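Question:
When you can, review this sequence-structure pair and walk me through the tokens.
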Amino acid sequence: MHLKILVLLLLVCFSYSKAEEIDTGNILDPADEWTLEDKASITQCSYSGTLEDGEVCTGSSSIGGGYNENDGGKIVSDEYSLINQGLTIDEIQQGFDYTYGSTIESHVSNTNVLSCNSTNGDCKDYFTITLNLSDQNGTIFKTHEHTVEMDYQGQQTYEYLATLDPNFYEDVSFKMDIWSVDAGYTNGYYGGIISNPFLSIQYQTVEIITDIITDIVNDIVFEEIEFEEVSFEVVIEDFFQDDLTFEFDFAPVEQAPIEIEMVEVEEIQLEIQEEFEEQLLDEMPEMEDIPEPEVIEETPEEISEEVQEEVQEEIVEEVVEEAPEEVEEEQEEISPAEIKQKIANKLMASQKDKMSTEAQTTQLALMVILADVGFDSYLEKQIIDGAFYKDVGLVDQNVIIDYQAGILGYMDYGKINEMVDSQWK
């Protein structure tokens, strides 16, 4: 226990990353489990005795002195993903090495026959090992191909080493195929015998020290905690044997009728019109208080008729008084607009709720009454002359051409290129 705590403290004080070299070993299946194409057989072969487990024999050519494209036989492996082999994305992207190849057995005739380019008959046999690398989308991004002329007898193992540099692939898959042909000979299975194909990956794994610390902490904590199984027995007694029933008597709810009083704007406007006329009559100066001598007056009957017939016309009244000392004074003139505004203020002041429908309608009606401007006269006006301006051409002038103006454009382009290039420095 104390030793683990001491190791934990040392790891915390001296945190580091530990890299380890890993070799996956051969990840390929035996050759006789691959897909066989053309003249490839796991049951028959014209030399070297009976085929053993893991061996595939290939066949002849269709012509003398060489071979055609589909001659001989080929085996094709499955696709092997490195993620499925246990590598992480980080380990793939840091780059790795890989070793691949196979054992190929050759017939004894290959030691004494000529090469295919020197004869029209039986010639030396060939084999080809091909390895394709594809990314996580199945796109092949790298291919290795090795073709060998077989000039030996018996088995030989061919091994190749390659490296994948640091990359951005999220997965890498390998797929291999091996082909061989008995070149220049048109009968039997005297081609190469394929066995022991192999592919191994060599990479570095990085074990973060924090993972080790977490494991140690978990060991320390869980070793000190003892877990006991606790069980509880719950007994529920039946207190009620009979079913309970409840009855509720709800009195019917009477729905009170809802009445909404709609206010007609036209009726309110007529009422405001009548009230406005009455207030206008009350605001007019009393004719009884004015002396009779040399007074230009209008009778109350005439004023009433004017107000009732034409509220919008101007009301002009001049009152002249003559004092006992025979001094003439001019009566102060009151404009119709002031009288209308005063009456409107009184009517609006009588409204208690300024935001009510009635108050808003009253305000609109007063705005109509107080408006002294009519727009009918504007509608009768028309624009007789539709020509608003006269198009006059400019007189030809001698224009000075600046031949150096293009230099400024090139200077702008240069500055822009400097700005673009600066972000990569």
Observations:
- The chain is about 25% helix and 25% strand.
